[in-house]
């Protein structure tokens, strides 16, 4: 399988998504939009991964690549080419699917549980996962469930944490983060951490990585294995 990964900033990389691709023997290409690299052509990949970033989907004037990136996501959905969106990536995906991205009542920065719906009929992306999972959050914006999508997960601080589309998955939280990746994120964006009910200081973030990193990586691998099967079906 050929995977193209759109990266928006140097400190929010694919982490364990790339590790999974290497473990499974897939071709993995990173497109660094922050360095002005060109968006990939549709016929060069089978799965599009859209990563996170501190910018908003509404910052099109400041980040000129946002409009063509949204157009690429829209074309993928039109052509039934699978898209995985993480944090900002899920917000881009949600907007393209027809819903509005807006400020969440509270920021979520830290390790907090999400409640999944892994047993609901018809779901494939989170099949085999536990009903509750402690995951890393780092976002201040959210969205309503996009039209035609299935609500997959929620948390105390955010109603829509994940959604599934026939050829897409949006995750507001970070299953891909490694210890080095989280340290880099804290170094670059630690000033965003306040004192809200769902915001943790850096030491708690790092200790959470030690406590939850292994089960979160296993959950990510399970999701990506499910997506791999879905992509294979879409390619037939």
Care to describe what's here?
Strands 2-1-3-4-9-8-7-5-6 form a nine-stranded mixed β-sheet, with helices on both faces. The protein has one domain: Class I glutamine amidotransferase (GATase) domain (Rossmann fold, 3-Layer(aba) Sandwich). It is globular. The two termini are 13 Å apart. The protein contains five helices and nine strands. The mean pLDDT is 96. With 236 residues, the protein is α/β, with parallel strands linked by helices.
CATH topology: Rossmann fold
Report the sheet with the most strands, covering strand number, pairing sense and barrel closure: 9 strands, mixed
Helix content: 25-40%
* SSE topology string: EHEEHEHEEEEEHH
Q: Which secondary-structure class do the elements indicate?
A: alpha/beta
Question: What is Rg?
Answer: 16 Å
* Strand fraction: 25-35%
Number of strands: 9
CATH architecture: 3-Layer(aba) Sandwich
The named CATH superfamily: Class I glutamine amidotransferase (GATase) domain
As an assembly, this protein is single chain
Residue-averaged pLDDT: 96
Uncertain runs with pLDDT below 50, 5 residues or more? none
Please give the alpha-carbon distance between the first and last residues: 13 Å
- CATH class division: Alpha Beta
> How many domain regions?
1
Gross morphology: globular
* Number of helical elements: 5
Sheet with most strands: strand arrangement? 2-1-3-4-9-8-7-5-6
Short description:
This protein has about 240 residues and is of the alpha/beta class. About 30% of the residues lie in helices and about 25% in strands.
């Amino acid at each position: 399988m050929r995977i193209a990964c759109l990266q928006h900033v140097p400190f929010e990389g694919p982490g364990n998504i790339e590790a999974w691709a290497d473990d499974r023997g897939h071709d993995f290409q990173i497109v660094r939009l922050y360095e002005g690299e060109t968006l990939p052509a549709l016929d060069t990949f089978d799965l599009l991964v859209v990563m996170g970033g501190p910018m908003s989907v509404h910052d099109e004037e400041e980040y000129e690549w946002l409009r063509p990136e949204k157009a690429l996501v829209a074309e993928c959905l039109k052509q039934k080419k699978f898209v995985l969106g993480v944090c900002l990536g899920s917000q881009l995906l949600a907007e393209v699917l027809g819903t509005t991205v807006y400020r969440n009542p509270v920021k979520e920065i830290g390790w907090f549980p999400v409640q999944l719906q892994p047993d609901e009929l018809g779901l494939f992306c989170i099949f085999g996962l536990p009903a509750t999972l402690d995951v890393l959050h780092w976002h201040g914006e959210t969205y309503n469930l996009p039209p035609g999508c299935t609500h997959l997960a929620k948390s105390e601080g955010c109603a829509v944490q994940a959604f599934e589309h026939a050829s897409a998955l949006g995750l507001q939280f970070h299953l891909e983060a490694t210890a080095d990746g989280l340290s880099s994120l804290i170094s670059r964006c630690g000033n965003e951490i306040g004192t809200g009910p769902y915001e943790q200081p850096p030491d708690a973030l790092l200790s959470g990585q030690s406590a939850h990193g292994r089960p979160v990586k296993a959950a990510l691998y399970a999701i990506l294995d499910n997506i791999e099967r879905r992509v294979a079906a879409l390619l037939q």
